[in-house]
Amino acid sequence: MKVVFDTSVLVAAARSRNGASFQLMSMLPAPRFDIALTIALYTEWQAVLTRPEHVPSGVSVDGVLGYLRYLASLAQLQDVHFLWRPFLRDPDDDMVLECAVASGSTYIVTHNVKDFRRVSELKVQAITPADFLKLLRT
Hints:
The chain is an alpha/beta fold. It is 46% helix and 12% strand. It has 6 helices and 5 strands. It has a 5-stranded parallel sheet, with helices on both faces. Helix 3 packs antiparallel against helix 4. It starts with a strand and ends with a helix.
């Protein structure tokens, strides 16, 4: 199964080792799912996760960038040959949705499920990290 990780999942994993986001990141590479990624989404990951407030204590920006390169090496790089923006309220969310649709992903894993309400129209489901973990365990 293919999934797209919204940036909110990576931010949550960087902030706390106790949550579902960190558990998902710790599972990688995962035999039960593959991550889809576009260059646009990867660029957003870099921009957001290298902000001082998101860099974990004791980790350098170079360390964060190295981890993101590792995630990218695990991901299926997806080209997007279509745009239908605006579909969602936030253009950054549209970028995540475009990755999911182009890659045939089943889920967008996000802490902001409410921002992705319309995605079911495009045969994608927004799901929280905790709910995705429960799904993987069943």
